[in-house]
Amino acid sequence: MVRANRVVEISKTLSEILVCPLSKQPLRVCEKSNSLISDAIGVSFPIVDGIPCLVPKDGKIIEAEVSRDGDSANTKRRYHQDGTGGS
Amino acid sequence: MAVLQFSFPPVAGNTRRRHQICASADRQALFSRIAPVYDNLNDVFSLGQHRIWKRMAVSWSGAKEGSNVLDLCCGSGDLAFLLSEKVGLHGQVIGLDFSREQLMVASSRQRSRSKACYRNLKWVEGDAVDLPFPDCHFDAITMGYGLRNVIDKYKAMKEVRRVLKQGSKASILDFNKSTDGFRTSFQGLIIDNLIVPVAAGYGLSEEYQYLKRSIQEFLTGEELEHLALEAGFSSAKHFEVGGGLMGNLVATR
């Protein structure tokens, strides 16, 4: 899927493997903020140029309201442009 | 000893240098500063021998076609690229490092190379003591010239063990802290009279002076074996390579 902006998404394979570096619980991709969310500890980790930044100090504590908004349709797994597609 | 004359532009960056590079953040900054010239200097200092030692490290890891592997402290990606070729398109390689600048170099090298197998290679910015991977996930792990720079080595070894599958190996290559006085002196001579002066040509003499201190503070082969066993590995063996200047720990979960 072609995107107009410069956000480089991480691959589906990678996003399914990664866990929160602190809680070791699964992460979810947030398309809106281009980040990986650890719901277990309420922290988001940025994705920069397609590279997930999961050093603990890279994490930002997210507000409860933003966390709830993140559960809406905007929070979907995004797949890299590898021809297999995704939503 | 002949003095090698090099003429290079100094590396741009922060001009303030700390005298003692001890905190993790300091080491992260150090590796980010040397990122632009890291590969070239590795070739110069080891006369290209580091490529052989890294191939040996990959071999010892047990990685094979189709394996799911992790290269820790991957830096600019030397070991990760070797692993990528080894595991092929049906395997997967993740290279993890705490320096974004080193990962940018690695990613750039990946884009400039045409081998199809490099599609199996992904980069993650992370900390070796807090790995963002589930338990029992990898068929093999490598770490090249990384453990010596980790402040909490025990915690890192615990994490390596945690994410390894049962029976799989971690292959950890680094400088050898020798118990042999002659070798230790020889290592020191090389660093003081070759490595630091050449690094000074890039404006990086303090960064490479850190190298000597880090080897002095590192563990001997026997101590590394003991550390691995303490961290829960079922077996651990340290091999000296490069005439005893380098060592490779092989630890099995």
Please describe what this structure looks like.
The complex is a heterodimer of chains A (87) and B (253). Chain A is an alpha+beta fold and 87 residues long. Chain A has a single domain (2-62), classed as N-terminal domain of TfIIb, CATH 2.20.25.10. Chain A is built from 2 helices and 5 strands. In chain A, strands 1, 2, 3, 4 and 5 form a 5-stranded antiparallel beta sheet that branches. The longest helix of chain A has 6 residues, at 12-17. Chain A is globular and about 25 Å long. In chain B, α3 packs across α4 (78-87) and α7 (181-200) runs antiparallel to α8. Chain B is globular and about 45 Å long. The longest helix of chain B has 20 residues, at 181-200. Chain B has a 7-stranded mixed beta sheet with strand order 3-2-1-4-5-7-6, with helices on both faces. Helices cover 43% and strands 19% of the residues of chain B. Chain B is of the alpha/beta class. The chains are: A alpha+beta (87), B alpha/beta (253). Chain A binds chain B through residues 10-11, 13-14, 17-22, 24, 27, 48-56, 58, and chain B through 92, 94, 98, 100, 103-104, 107, 122-127, 130-135, 137.
User: Biggest interface in this structure?
Assistant: A-B, 22 and 20 residues
Q: What is the alpha-carbon Rg of chain B in Å?
A: 17 Å
Please state roughly what percent of the residues of chain A sit in beta strands, choosing from under 5%, 5-15%, 15-25%, 25-35%, 35-45% or over 45%: 15-25%
Structural shape of chain A: globular
Order of helices and strands of chain B: HHHEHEHEEHEHHHEE
Shape of chain B: globular
Mean pLDDT of chain A: 75
Secondary-structure blueprint:
The complex is a heterodimer of chains A (87) and B (253).
Chain A: H1 12-17, E1 28-30, E2 35-38, E3 43-48, E4 51-52, E5 60-61, H2 64-69
Chain B: H1 24-34, H2 38-46, H3 50-61, E1 68-72, H4 78-87, E2 92-97, H5 100-112, E3 121-125, E4 138-144, H6 153-163, E5 164-175, H7 181-200, H8 205-216, H9 221-230, E6 235-241, E7 246-252
Parallel strand pairs in B: 1-2, 1-4, 2-3, 4-5
Antiparallel strand pairs in B: 5-7, 6-7
